[in-house]
Amino acid sequence: MKKQNEKILTILALIVLGILVYLAENNLDAYKLRILNLGAIYITLGVSLNLIYGFTGQFSLGHAGFMAIGAYVTTLLVLPPYYKEMIYILEPLAWPFTVIHAPFIVALFLSGLFAAIAAFIIGLPVLRLKGDYLGIATLGFAEIIRIVANNIPRVTNGALGIKGIPEFTNLWWSVGVAVVTIYIIKGLIESSYGRALMAIRENEIAAEVIGINLTYHKVMSFTISAFFAGVAGGLFACLLTTIDPKAFMFVMTFNILIVVVMGGLGSITGTVLAAFLFNFFLEYLRPIEAGFNIGPIKIPQIPGMRMVTFSALLLVVILYKQKGLLGGFEFSWKGFFQFINKLFKNKRSSEGSTR
Amino acid sequence: MSLNLFLQNVANGLSLGSLYALIAIGYTMVYGILRLINFAHGEIFMLAPYFLYFGVLIFHLPWWASIIAAIALTAMTGMLSERIAYKPLRDAPRISALISAIGVSFFLQNLAIVVFSGIPKSVHRPAFFTRLYRFGEIRIQSTLFASIIVSSIFLTLLLYVVYRTKTGLAMRAISTDIETSRLMAADVNKAISITFIIGSALAAVGGILWGLRFPQLFPTMGMIPGLKAFIAAVVGGIGNIPGAMLGGLILGMTEILFVAFLPAVSGYRDAFVFLILILILLFKPDGILGKKVQEKV
Question: ipTM, 2 decimals?
Fold first, then answer.
C-alpha cells in the first residue's frame, strides 16, 4: 500500500476516534468517563515506559517519580493564587509558587519539561548501570522524589496533599495526549534514532562497536519517556482533583510495568490494549465485592475481594501468556488489510467447498 | 551526643539491622538462584506475625507452639508461591517472572485484607517481651536482645546449611550454573523449593520479631521493610549471603544513626537510605561483598 493512502486512513481513523470521544463526553456518566480517562492516561504512561524499557531495553522503574513531578508542577500552576493561600495551612506556600498561574496546556507542557530535566540529571550517571541494577537505582530515585515531596510542605503541602484541583482533564485532553504520545514515540522508533535504540536493546556492546553513542541514546530515550510520564502525571492530578505523595509510591510504577509487559514488550498496540483492559477490569470487578447471588447460593459482601480476583487474574494471564497478550505484535494498515483479505478469501474458499 | 545515648542508638540499630538481615537473606538467596527479584517476599514477611496473632487469639495455642506454627505456615506459603507462580516461568523472559512476583505480592496483600481485614491489629505481647533491662543509663527492651540473639542463631544455622551440607552444595552449584548442575544430577526443583522454604522461614522469624517490636499489624506492613531488606541485599552484594547480613546491619545502623545525629531532617531518613543504595550501585555495582562478574562479548 502507498504511504499516501496510509496517511489518509490514519486521518480517517482519528476522525472516527474524535467522533467517539465526542459521543462519550456527551452521553456517558462521570464514573464511566473517569475509567476511560484513566485508561487513556495509562496509555500515555505505558507507551512512554515502553520506549525506555520495551524498545531501548533499559529497565526503568522510575515512572511514578516523574509522574509525581508532573502532578505537582501542574497542580501548582493551575490552582488560582488565592486558593493556594487558603489550603496551605501548616506552612505557607513558598514565594514563586504563590503568584504563578498558567493555563492547563502550558502547565502540562511544563510538567513534562520538569520531569524530563529530572530524568536528564538522574539518567546521566544512572544509565551506565545495567539490568536489575538500573531498575533498583531508578526505583530509588523515584522514592527519593516522593520522600522529598513529603518533606517540603512549603511547596507540596507535605503529606496532607492538595485537594480541590480543578478538574480540567476530560477525554479530549487525555485521549489527545495519548494520541500525540503514540504519534511522537512511533515516529521516533521508526527513525534512525529508533533503530539505534533497538540495537542497544539487542546487544549493547555490538551497538557500541558499530558506532552508536550509548550514553546519548539511552539518556535521550529516558528523558523523552520521562517527559510523557510528567505530562501524564499532570493529567492524573487534574482528573483525580486531589494528590498526595502516597499516590506515587512504587506500586504506581508496578501498575504501569504490568500494563507494558501484559501488552507485550515493544508493542505499542499491546500497551494500548492492556492499558484499557487493566482499568476496565480493575473497575468492573467491583460487583464481586459488593455481594451477589449464584442461583440459590448467596455470596456476602467481602471488601477487598475485587483486588484478590484482579491479582489472581493477572497471575493467570502472565502464566499462560508469558510474552504478553499480543507478544510484540504491532498494528499496521498493511497487516490489517492482509487480515481482512485473508478472512474474505477463507470465506470464499469455504463457500466454494460447500458447493 | 552523650556516649550512653550513642550506645543506646547502636543497640537499636543492631536490632533493626538484624531484622533487615533476616529478611534480606530470602531476597539474596532467590536472586542468586533464579535471578528473580522476589517482590512478594515482603508479603511473606507480613503473613508470619498475622499467623502468630491468630494462633494465639483464635486457636489459643501457647506462644511457643504458635510461633512454630507461624514459621512453618509462612515457609509453606513461600514454597507454594514458587511452585505456582515462578516455576512455570523458569524458561520465560525474566520480566514475566518479575511481573508474576508482583502479582503474588498484590494477591497476598489483598488476600490478607480479605481474610485478616484491613483494620490494624495490635499484638498483645507476653510480659517476657516487654521487659526492660537497664545498663546504667541505657534501657534495652527484651525484644531487642531477642532479635539480636535469635537472628544470630538462625543466621549461623543458615551458614551451616549452605556451606556444610549437601543441599547447600546443590544450592550453591545451581546459583553458579543451573544447566551444569542439572547435568551433575543435582535435584534443581528440590533445591529451589528448599531455598524458598529457608528464605520464607527466616522472613517469618524476622516478621514475628518485627511484630513484637512494633506491635501493630496491617496488610501492607511488609512493603517498606521488604523494600529496605531488598536494598540491604543489594548493598551487601545480591546473591551473597554474608553480604545480605552485612547489608542488613549497615542499613539498620544507618537509619537509626541518621535520625539520632540529624533529628532536624529525620523525614529524609528513607531518602538517605536510597541515596546510599544509588551511590553504592554507581561506584561498586556488585555490592560490598559481591564478586565482579566479567562481561563476555
Answer: 0.88
